[in-house]
Specification:
- This protein is α/β, with parallel strands linked by helices and 145 residues long.
- The protein contains 5 helices and 5 strands, in the order E-H-H-E-H-E-H-E-E-H.
- Helix 2 (29-43) runs parallel beside helix 5 (131-144) and helix 3 (55-68) runs parallel beside helix 4.
- The chain is globular.
- Its EC number is 4.2.1.10.
Length: 145
């Protein structure tokens, strides 16, 4: 059975494609899910796209990933910069964790420059648009090989 990779997305990313397209582009999260699923199949992996606007739901999904996922790709969105609780949940996950940001957070407001999740992430991708998810998936395949 193919190893499952959870692709977790934080608040407001359900509006991807509609929300500030000059920053985040025109692709929707469904587009990203479809492209990642196709790439995962090529890489011998399986992806599950998850999005929530609620911190606790993201934490619950990370806890379940301890049992049902080999790796986590996470775009925590605004929780990147605020959530010790998501960091703690990721610290309880044993597989690889890759952090993705669609925009280049380092080119933006200073409050976006700090990431709690980066204290756990095995790698970080920022500013590659939604292509960052596919790049993270390729890296994940390498890490799990
Ligand atoms: C984001 C960057 C965050 O600062 C922001 O709050 C988001 C999206 C990104 O993908 O570029 O919602 O994580």
């Amino acid at each position: 059975m193919a190893a499952r990779i959870c692709i977790l997305n934080g608040p407001n990313l359900n509006l991807l494609g509609k929300r500030q397209p000059e920053i985040y582009g025109h692709d929707t999260l469904e587009d990203v899910a479809r492209d990642c699923a196709a790439l995962a199949a090529e890489l011998g992996l399986e992806t599950e796209m998850f999005q929530s606007n609620h911190e606790g739901e993201i934490i619950d999904r990370i806890h379940r990933a301890r049992e049902d996922a080999a790796g986590i790709i996470i775009n925590p969105a605004a929780y990147t910069h605020t959530s010790v609780a998501i960091l703690d949940a990721l610290n309880a996950f044993e597989g690889p964790v890759l952090e993705v940001h669609i925009s280049n957070v380092h080119k933006r407001e200073s409050f976006r420059h700090h990431s709690y999740v980066s204290l756990r992430a095995d790698g970080v991708i920022a500013g590659f648009g939604v292509q960052g998810y596919e790049l993270a998936l390729r890296r994940m395949a390498r890490l799990l090989a």
